[in-house]
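Narrative of activities, Objective 1.

The group set out to show that a structural description can be obtained from nothing but a protein's sequence at a throughput compatible with the screening campaign. Below is one input-output pair from the validation batch, recorded exactly as produced.
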Amino acid sequence: MVQRLLEPGEIEALDHTAIPRLLLPQPGSLYTARAERLRQLAANNIKGIPVDEALASYVKLMAELVQAQADVVKTLLPAGIPLPPDDEMKVAHEHNMPVLPATGKRPAEWRAVFAAILDKLDAQAADQPQLTNALVALRALTDAQLEGAADAVLGDFAEGIDPLHAPFVAAALQVTWSVMAAQLDERWAQPLMTGTLCPVCGSHPVASVIRIGGQSQGYRYLHCAVCASEWHMVRVKCSCCESNAKIAYQGLTPADADPVAENVAAAKEGKTLNKANDPTRVARAETCDECHTYRKIFNQEHDYNVDPLADDLASLVLDVLVSELGYARASGNPLLRLGSPA
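Output recorded for this entry:
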């Protein structure tokens, strides 16, 4: 019997019950696991994602911020945050629009979430003057200024927010939207006209991830930067322009690595190299020569504990190398405010 490889279009046409199209977030465990991942990254304990000393201190600070997110989520669950009225979600559903649009009217609860996150960070600020100063400045924002900062974060505007304040505002928005998304019946979320935006809130993905286990085994998902929902996109397809013609993968290889010698040594012992848990395949950049952008892809097959947002933040060395090749980043990371994306 001859087996035939399916083309991308055929994969997308498969029974929707065979491939989970949407994975809603589980904020009760998401932020706790992310905070621990960030601590591991800051300690340079993750093979395949080297973190230098200068970046490590920032990653460690973001671990504290994410831990604050985890602590606040515990106070929100199981009551959650009210969802929009059913009639509004029905209209969105019928017109293939996001049912919890991040650029729409924000629930008033998000400001309370913001204040609670700052309160949780007070203990960590005791011996960190810079964090203390940031918390003072953030608490001094008026409601109008805070809403403007949220507009800048969600709209990815270059103006309207201090880059140092952006991660803290983004953290509150992430908690708010992920808690709402977790309450959602996934049947409300229809595929959008473009597969590059989150079907739940309409935001850009921060990165993509290859998942393992259950029906998601081996499939690639885009991870939303705001609500943390994940939606399926076939592999070897640009998550920015949706082209699949000129895709390539750029990764990091240790300077002292010699794959040829490793293969020769394994062959002499009558063995083949184990491709699982390969550090060079944990984090790679998926580049597209059609739109000249890239977005990182993290592989759970090679590191079970990958976190798309945390690993993206810590792998800045990969951003530098890929940008030097002439590719522009497709979208930003909410925990790090750099220049405008492509």
